Amino acid sequence: MHNYLERNKLLRKINVLFFVIIGILMIQSKYIYGRHFYFNNIFIGIIILILIISFFLSSYYKKSELCYQRNMYFLLWIITIFTTYAAYIGEYTAVGAIQILLLSVCVFSIFNQKTMKIFTGIYVVSIIPIAIFCELGMVNKIVKLSAILGMLSMAYIKSKYEINIAKKLNEIFVEKKQIIDNAKEAFAIHEMVFDSKGKPFDYIFIDVNSAFENIIGSCKYTIINRTVLEIWPKTEKFWIDFYGNVVINKKAKKTTNYSGELKKFFEVSAYPIGEKGFGTLFFDVTKRVENDRKLKNLIEKMENTDQLKTKFLQDVNHRLRTPLNGMMGMMQLMNREDLGKENQEILEIMIKEMKHTKNIINQISQYVNIQSIECKYTKHNIKKIIERLVAPYQKRNFNISIIIDEICEEEEVFFEENILNKVCKELIKNAAKHTLYKKIEIYILCELDSEKLTHLYKIVVKDFGLGITKEEQKYIFNEFYHQDFINIYKEEEEICISMCKQMLEIIGGDLMFESEVGKGTMFTMHLPIYLTNEI
Amino acid sequence: MKILIAEDDLTSRLFMKKFLSRYGECELAMNGMEAIELVMNSLESGNPYDLICLDIMMPKIDGIKALIAIRELERAKGEVLTNVSKIIMITALNDKKTVDEAYQNGCDAYAWKPIDIEKFSKVLKKLELIE
After folding, report:
1. How many residue pairs from chains A and B have C-beta atoms closer than 8 A?
2. Helix A93-108 and helix A65-88, axial crossing angle in degrees, nearest 10
């Protein structure tokens, strides 16, 4: 494209030069010979004049460069024929003119290095016989005719050759153009317009493809060679500044923004072309932007709802405890007295139900507390963390072996740190309490969950204790906050297995176990991990 | 043993009074401000409380603020550590933040409603308030 714009200008300049030279020669001829250059016959002269003028004008007609060149060459050939004819019939100054013609055509063919040699060859070959004829002064009609025929046929062959090349080039050009034209992405080429201070304030559409036509909803000829502010006066300053930036800094850039006139969000890549031009690639991202916004709103709504729910439960939790305290307290006090066997029985049942209610409320408390755990995502090597948690037990002569997948051994990944620490601590403590021979095995495995497309670490804590009976297994995860929470001097925060499971579920993990009586128990923890920190 | 119970709920107050009466003389306060006043008087008369039970959710001045104030009063009076009253928070709140705050400001124990009197008695024994 750069060459196209430059070449067009140069071509026109050469055309002008060419005609100036002809003009000079005409004037010279007039002075020397008293008549205009190679115009023996006034009619031939007029024809040539018309051809020259029409071709002069054609350089300003916006046709494809190749058609133009082809026509130019053809005209030059015709002129060459006439001049050689004139030379042949005795106008020796015409030989000089031909040589100048030769020169100018060679200059033309600068643009096509390969064919330059061919042109030069053809011209030279065609001139030589004429020159010979002129020197020999043969006035034989047959020779004259055959010379003319020879010239004409060479001209014809040459022009055919030209046309073929032009066709081929055009085909390639058309093919290339078709790819761009039929692309799904919208392309456009523009030229920036600057004000007197060199600041960009508008741009012209030079060409667009059919995808672009679809976006604007009309044929490209309605916008080509018009400026953007002419077509869409309300175009935001942002766009013009953005393109101006690309053109001035000669650096390609990408942006996503809204166009009020087209009522769409576009992702635009712009790249500079030449001095003032730039090309753009448009993607209609309206749907994507809207979906992103919808998603964001939904997440916000979900978080708010979740917060309200937790707050409500917290509130209810508090308020229930006060009357419960009163009721249970009074019942306990009454139990201290002797009420007679039947009343004693009734009272004991009442107290039992009260304790049951208390346990249920404790479960709510536990749920609320787990919800309010702060999630802290950090990047770490999990093996090191487990080694640290296991250290105090190793000091007490526990035999703890950590078996880890080779991949995970040195790996540093992103995961939730608080919950991992709490759960691992609890599982190890539990294993230490139940195992025999002070033996614990810990396995760390890495897996890809192909359904959810997340990476998982499976951490297995295996003890070699008495195992858990089938009866007890039912209650493992139903065990709730059995601590009545009267502690002195701030004992360590107690958590239980069911809390571990709940906490893991919050971050998208899980807790499972397998147990065999007499052999031991194995708790498996699923911890989701991330390779990047965009959580 | 001299006992102070600060609690805004009537039933709970009654319960604690009935429960703790067997261990000593109970005085009642309905909110944090009353509790602070009573403690002030007791310190001035040279007869401090052995045990103070504080609820946290109380009108006017809440339990934590009362706790801070009481410990401050004791410090101001220059009481030796052994004579300082034992303070037990009795409350429905159990979130980590509140528990930490209570311990930071000098409470001796933290009891969660509803109270189990057997466990509470054990705590009193541990704090060496009863046999």
Report:
1. 92
2. 160
Chain B residues close to A490, C-beta within 8 Å: 99, 103, 110
Which chain B positions have a beta carbon within 8 Å of A332's beta carbon? 19, 116-117
pLDDT digits (tens, 9 = 90+) for B72-95: 888 887 766 555 788 999 888 877
Bridge partners of residue A446, in order along the sequence: A457
Is the CB of residue A453 less than 8 Å away from at least one CB of chain B? no
> Distances from the Cα of A496 to the Cαs of A417, A482, A483, A491, A500, in angstroms?
18, 9, 10, 15, 6
Instruction: Please write the tens of the pLDDT for every residue from B35-48.
Output: 999 998 988 888 88
| DSSP bridge pairs for B27 | B4
CA distances from A193 to A186, A190, A206, A263, A271 (A): 22, 10, 12, 24, 16
Which of B51, B115, B128 to probe by mutation at the A interface, max A CB count within 10 Å? Answer: B115
DSSP string, B74-125: HHHHT--GGGSPEEEEEES---HHHHHHHHHTT-SEEEESSPPHHHHHHHHH
ipTM exceeding the 0.90 mark: no
